[in-house]
Amino acid sequence: MALKMVKGSIDRMFDKNLQDLVRGIRNHKEDEAKYISQCIDEIKQELKQDNIAVKANAVCKLTYLQMLGYDISWAAFNIIEVMSASKFTFKRIGYLAASQCFHEGTDVIMLTTNQIRKDLSSPNQYDTGVALTGLSCFVTPDLARDLANDIMTLMSHTKPYIRKKAVLIMYKVFLKYPESLRPAFPRLKEKLEDPDPGVQSAAVNVICELARRNPKNYLSLAPLFFKLMTSSTNNWVLIKIIKLFGALTPLEPRLGKKLIEPLTNLIHSTSAMSLLYECVNTVIAVLISLSSGMPNHSASIQLCVQKLRILIEDSDQNLKYLGLLAMSKILKTHPKSVQSHKDLILQCLDDKDESIRLRALDLLYGMVSKKNLMEIVKKLMIHVDKAEGTTYRDELLTKIIDICSQSNYQYITNFEWYISILVELTRLEGTRHGHLIAAQMLDVAIRVKAIRKFAVSQMAMLLDNAHLLASNTQRNGICEVLYAAAWICGEFSEHLEEANQTLEAMLRPKVTTLPGHIQAVYVQNMVKLYASILQQKEQAGDKEAAQEITQLMIERLPQFVQSADLEVQERASCILQLIKYIQKLQAKEVPVAEEVIALFAGELNPVAPKAQKKVPVPEGLDLDAWINEPPSDSESEDEKPKTIFHEEEQRHSRHRQPEIDEEELARRREARKQEQANNPFYIKSSPSPQKRYQDTPGVEHIPVVQIDLSVPLKVPGMPMSDQYVKLEEERRHKQKLEKDKKKKKQKKEKRGKHHRHNSLHTESEEDIAPAHHVDIITEEMPENALPSDEDDKDPNDPYRALDIDLDKPLADSEKLPVQRHRNVETLKSPDSEAALVEKKSKKPKKKEKKHKEKERDKGKKKEKEKKVVEEEEEEEEKKGEDLDFWLSTAPAPAPAPQAQSEPALGAAVVAEPQEVKKEEREERDDEEEEDEGKKSSKHKKKKHKKEKEEKSKDKKKSKKKSHHSEEEPPESVQNGTLEDEPLPPMSSYRLLAENPFIKMTYDIQGNLQNDSQVTVSVIFENKSTSFLKSMELNVLDSLNTKMLRPEGSSVHDGIPVPFQLPPGISNEAQFVFTLQSIIMAQKLKGTLSFIVKNDEGSTHEKLDFKLHFSCASYLITTPCYSDAFAKLLESGDLHMSSIKVDGISISFQHLLAKICFHHHFSVVERVDSCASMYSRSIQGHHVCLLVKKGENSVSIDGKCNDSTLLSNLLDEMKETLSKC
Amino acid sequence: MINAILVFNNHGKPRLVRFYQHLAEEAQQQIIRDTFHLVLKRDDHICNFLECGSLFGGSDYKLIYRHYATLYFVFCVDSSESELGILDLIQVFVETLDKCFENVCELDLIFHMDKVHHILQEMVIGGMVLETNMNEIVAQVEAQGKLEKAEGGLSAAPSRAVSAVKNINLPEIPRNINIGDINIKVPNLSQFM
């Protein structure tokens, strides 16, 4: 016993700490692994001890070993023990280890929930901080669900240090538990305006990250971000915001227009390169989104290109790299502005930095045109020769092919040149892109008919020189081109001049060293060749030669029959038998050529890669149904492939070359003759094409200095693409001369009439006629191919779960789970919650469906149904409205809200843009109506219009409301409703007064900025056929309630309404009233005076009214979190009162909606048929309600600071409810 | 988002490894090796950005690194980060280390990996940049250091014990004791007992 104790204390004494461990490892370089396993044993011993300091020390060492690649997950439980130590020192070690090795698969992680919760609420901010940091690395869906509420509370912590961490971690929580996004978002949004710049930056960071994945949901935040962008001085924040705008502009071009100016200013003013670069990037994004028809932005493009040029020319390689990167973005939409910097970009190809070279290559890809393709490719070919290292060379090779083949060979004017380039590329040793070259050869030979003859001759040459290529027989090596060569020579053997020679080349013994799939193609195609030779000889009556060739085949084929590759073996033995049979027939002197050639009749057409997928299933065909009852013995039906070929041919005949007029043909023929004369490759017999070339008469056109001597030695007979470049220049020169001649002629004719700009040197791309008339056969698609590709989206994208509409008001079912005692029933299982989300995410689809339905059912027109649909549409519209408004105003940074918050300037303020907006909408409505209303009667139309108008009023109202302040929830209308249950239309506008001329409806809203003011919005509707003008509104002030009049006017003066009303038009004006007490409802008498003007003259009219200020109109819809609500109720300084209303038949859902809408409440929490609600008066009274629904009755318990206010409110509520 | 932060020396020995998405230790080591080989073959005077292809399982990722004396600081980031911004951040990180360790060198990182992690955690959490102001970072690190000191620190107990041992003139303590059978291997101990 004593020994054990002593041993324990000695263990403690000799504990290695981290430093000792590191030192030990450094001292054991030779047997490091052994030493470490020893240390791990020690650590295991240490972990068994009770002393937490020892454990912490051990865990700290484990963290170090983890870095070296040792799995430490076995210590997960000990790590948790250390995490839960009370001392910060140990706790920090534990959390660090956890953050390094915990993940979703760690099973003990579920034990940490309570510990983490405890740490999060620790009074020591560093305990909280450490827990948050750790959590950020290992949060799991379970932890996220359980802790979301705690972290959300921390977002409002007093210490900015905690706030900013909590804000950042919310992003991780959203990722793991998407349901938390909507409940937490309002608070996150608040943090954008946090007084601490760090917190603000964190919030920007999180929202940017969210918005990057699903930008459309965050468009409505654009005004807020715009404000931040113009006010913030923190470059980190600015960069993030500017990047965010870059993601948003593609969705909303108007936003781009607004951004251009401030961004250009920033570009001019900032000294930070990082900011400058991001600004340029976003301006580019804006320009891309505006690319259609915005010519006046060329200045911005120029600015960007100019700045980027400065970056690229900078000696700092980083700036150079980024400059090229951004340049490639401009290239997509404004290629012209980039092309002028071609020199600079070609220069970058020589850079010693591979990243920069690759970027420059990318740029070149987009810069090619018909005019410069040959030149650029020539430069690239030089680089291919110079390139060190196969990676970069392979990259160059793929780029060359990409550049040439892009958009269906759009820029290639001379396919002979391209084939030569491909053949030249086969000289690259050690490339891994043989298959790429092969694919190009096949594609070009198949799709460009005119080139086949040339292609075949080149391929025959390749086959002849196969020994040079076959040295590298690795898969995807350069030998792959032989696959293409063999196929092309076989398939188009009719173009082959010396088929015999080629056939012999294919039968060489060396061929058997090639990979199997190439040999197989060889075997198959040598029969095609054989067939065509046979036919040729038979036609010539040269029977001996025909037999000779048969004999050759029979002699050589056995080497393939012995092949180890099954495919080769099978084909070869099959063909050998066939040829033996032919030999027999030949011996009997039977002509066989026709029959043999018939084996390969028909033409193969290219088929688009997705063609098969796009074949539509014919109507009435059920592919899963049995055609016959499942038979006992399966019999395979013979299919006849021939019919396929037949069809193909028919279709092919549609691609006939367009008719060309005589003159053009003659000109082309001339050009081609010239070219063929200069082209060495048409005269195969010449031993040295180069010599021959120099002998041709065209030689004096070629400046001697241009001959590129750096080109390495060629394989004899191999083409030189460079010559094409010269030929092309020559050709173009000739073309130009011809054209100029023509022009001159025209000029002569037109001289005197027309002064024309001489366009000698502005030859545009279109002027370059291709050297060959090529018919690029397009890839075939089945008829009635399905148009859209739906398979592009990745269903497994983790960010898709965060595609959540944030503008919709919170439903009361959306709550962050709060820790409760187990007996609370409402605790949901994760399954049901998941189902909820699914339901939600399905929603938009449903909407769409309804929309479609609407279109379909236009004829039927069930009013009711339509209403519902419109309601939903409106909801969508509203969402965008704030943004619309913001975007439609002049580019002042903070536009609309001011107009509202300065009522003192005049009692009635109607922002003009709104008026315009409204007219617009009405126009739109009218159009819509015309669309739909064709079948409906006029009467219906009118009714419909009225409805719409009223709705647009609603919309306007809600819009105005939301201008009061940005924190206010978007609208109260839908508050407390489940989205899938449509509500009947509601309007808060009540009738004020009406006569034959005019109808007034009004609504009262509390003013957030001022605790003793309310705004009365009155809609004036002209019902007559006359013009109404000089309207003036006056009320008789009471002691308590007074209308706010412009300074200097007396209490008896009326306030002029700031507009006139043409017949049938309505408009809205606002009047501000000041109040002293708000605990009672008020009534004010008033008069509207106006002049009615029509053809007969004008009359003065008056209309009296009574303005009713209900207590509800003093309430402002204020959201309240359940924790705050509970505290409020507990505080005990509220008076209580209750009512009960019988005979309620509407659903609880609608009931809540009504209270929310008419009485300005918001739902705090809802459980079954019971809900708590909250609102606040403009003077700060809290009003809490508990609404319970019985069988046919509703009881409402209310609590409020002021008992009179409460009882008045409840009375009003009773009245509303009794109407239900 | 930052996907990973790696610090390794000119020989590819890791000095700090921080992945913000879970990877098995083996995969981590493989990435460190690959990254090292990618970075190693680049001169000091070429650009600090590197497309790492599918190394991190997505083409969106980019390596941004800086080379200081014997150490490479490599950040793997996606397209939402500003390239130049991250370069600045690396600079801030190194300057902060310099301030916290007083003339930082590789040895500081080797022996105080935990402290380096703690400094990093004040700059970047969960792959998102938390703070870029050096003074603020240093202040928070120092505050936590003070708190640790007040608690006596981790090494307090063992080192005190060791110093006590030293004070009683214990003849050379063998460095590597196999704790398992202590009686056999350490004969000197009898003296102490």
Automatic annotation (TrEMBL), chain A:
InterPro entries: AP3_complex_dsu, AP3D_dom_metazoa, ARM-like, ARM-type_fold, Clathrin/coatomer_adapt-like_N, Mu_AP3. The keyword Mitochondrion does not apply. One of its GO terms (cellular component) is endosome membrane. Residues 741-759, 840-853, 936-946, 954-963 have a biased composition (Basic residues). Gene3D superfamilies: Leucine-rich Repeat Variant, Longin domain. Its main location: cytoplasm. Residues 639-675, 728-740, 795-839, 854-869 have a biased composition (Basic and acidic residues). Residues 777-794, 922-931 have a biased composition (Acidic residues). Residues 622-696, 728-987 are annotated as: Disordered. Residues 660-807 form the AP-3 complex subunit delta domain. It is a peripheral membrane protein. GO terms for biological process: anterograde synaptic vesicle transport; Golgi to vacuole transport; neurotransmitter receptor transport, postsynaptic endosome to lysosome; protein targeting to vacuole; synaptic vesicle budding from endosome; synaptic vesicle membrane organization. It is found in: Cytoplasm; Golgi apparatus membrane. Keywords: Acetylation, Coiled coil, Cytoplasm, Golgi apparatus, Membrane, Phosphoprotein, Protein transport, Repeat, Transport. SMART domains: BLVR (SM01354). Belongs to the adaptor complexes large subunit family. Part of the AP-3 complex, an adaptor-related complex which is not clathrin-associated. The complex is associated with the Golgi region as well as more peripheral structures. It facilitates the budding of vesicles from the Golgi membrane and may be directly involved in trafficking to lysosomes. Involved in process of CD8+ T-cell and NK cell degranulation. In concert with the BLOC-1 complex, AP-3 is required to target cargos into vesicles assembled at cell bodies for delivery into neurites and nerve terminals. This is AP-3 complex subunit delta-1. It comes from Lepidothrix coronata.
UniProtKB/TrEMBL annotation, chain B:
Belongs to the adaptor complexes small subunit family. It comes from Lepidothrix coronata. GO terms for cellular component: AP-3 adaptor complex; cytoplasmic vesicle membrane; Golgi apparatus. It is found in: Cytoplasmic vesicle membrane; Golgi apparatus. The keyword Transport applies. It is a peripheral membrane protein. This is AP-3 complex subunit sigma-2. Its main location: membrane. GO terms for biological process: Golgi to vacuole transport; intracellular protein transport. Part of the AP-3 complex, an adaptor-related complex which is not clathrin-associated. The complex is associated with the Golgi region as well as more peripheral structures. It facilitates the budding of vesicles from the Golgi membrane and may be directly involved in trafficking to lysosomes. In concert with the BLOC-1 complex, AP-3 is required to target cargos into vesicles assembled at cell bodies for delivery into neurites and nerve terminals. Pfam families: Clat_adaptor_s (PF01217). Residues 1-147 form the AP complex mu/sigma subunit domain. Keywords: Cytoplasmic vesicle, Golgi apparatus, Membrane, Protein transport, Transport. The keyword Membrane applies. The lineage of its organism: Eukaryota, Metazoa, Chordata, Craniata, Vertebrata. InterPro entries: AP_complex_ssu, AP_mu_sigma_su, APS3, Clathrin_sm-chain_CS, Longin-like_dom_sf. PROSITE patterns: CLAT_ADAPTOR_S (PS00989).
